[in-house]
Amino acid sequence: MTYMKRSQTIPAQYSAHMVNAEKFVVLCVQYNGDESLREQAMAFIAEGIDWEYFVDISVAQKIAVMVYNVIYKIVPPECIPCFVFDALRNAYLYIVSKTLLKHTETLKLLRLCAQAQVKVVPLKGTILAKRLYGQVHLRDLSSDIDLFIEEKDKLCARDILAREGYVLRLRGNDDYSGYNEFMKAGFGSIDLQWKIVETIDCSRSRLEGFWRAVQKTEEEDITFSVFQTEELLLYLCAHSMSKHCFGQLRHICDIHQLLVVEHAAIDWNRIVAKAKEWNLLTSLYCALSMRQYFFKISVAPEIKKVLKISRFKIMLLKVFTDELVFFRRQSFRRRLVDRFLGFVFFRFVEARSLRDYFFFVFPPREALQSKSYLTMFWRGLGKLTSVFAR
């Protein structure tokens, strides 16, 4: 994949020790017992690592638990400053305690939905963590609980949440965006979703295809639905591209882990066919490319033959989803996505017609949460210029 030919230029404001910190974080998520990774880690330590920055990005990328579990397997304890291990351990203990509460709450809500005959698929969170990593806390802490329902059941699901003390947050045109956000003191938020991709998902075939691919599972005598392997892979790709522009290493780790633990259930010809039908081909391409870069796992030749996107989209992905943008939240390109382009970037990279590109230039008012395009433009431009004013 030509997309993986990335620039190694380092911005002046980032020291070599900070770059080594980023590389060491990547080694931690890559680690599988390979002796060569230990040698690389020791070389980075010998050159010098900005350890405070190392801790910061481990937490920001939501991989602190992964890093905590492997850091002493990669290098001897005496090579790691005490405050680094203490910070990671404190993060680990906090995440474990909060995650167990989240899991208990998730199961309670799934039980209530089952009793009310509301078909629900828990997205990400502790259910995904247990499926991919074997333990509910190993995926780090999710900020919310995402429940995917059919649109016809949204009123019933809202009533369930209201009876449990959750309060609906009004946030513009929720019917267009495809989800409601509920808050409850002590438990964070619940995202009740009836669209796979927020705000811009208008593909009926995509939505119906995901619902056809659910399967029943049980935990603690509670029956609920989950996506099959191929659909889960496409969902993770779509979510990471549409909401985060692949801005968190945790999402790449999820995709990698799914491809490791459930590889036997994957038919790549079917996946690519579904990605084309559901307009998710670029998201799939980007996910596999990012996995190739971070985990050094090449994309199989037979997949490369069928997984093709335009050179223009490859160039766009190189600009907005490379590793420098990944870690450096204050960079110009990252801010351009977060502050201005994020609300239409997914639609743009998945565009296949002039109509889709027209949406990018003149998005409907609902897509901007009832704000005018000019308002969004000037606000975004103002936030970007503030980067240079500092």
Description:
- The chain has helices at 16-30, 35-47, 51-60, 64-74, 82-115, 125-133, 154-163, 174-177, 204-212, 229-244, 249-261, 268-277, 281-295, 301-306, 311-320, 323-327, 332-349, 354-361, 373-389, and strands spanning 120-123, 144-149, 167-169, 179-184, 188-193, 214-219, 222-227.
- With 390 residues, the protein is α+β, with helices and mostly antiparallel strands.
- The strands form 2 sheets. Strands 1-2-5-4-3 form a 5-stranded mixed β-sheet.
- Strand 6 and strand 7 form a beta hairpin.
- The radius of gyration is 21 Å and the shape is globular.
- It starts with 15 loop residues before the first helix and ends with a helix.
Uncertain runs are: 2-12
Distance between the termini: 38 Å
Q: What is the residue-mean pLDDT, rounded to a whole number?
A: 83
Biggest sheet record:
5 strands, mixed
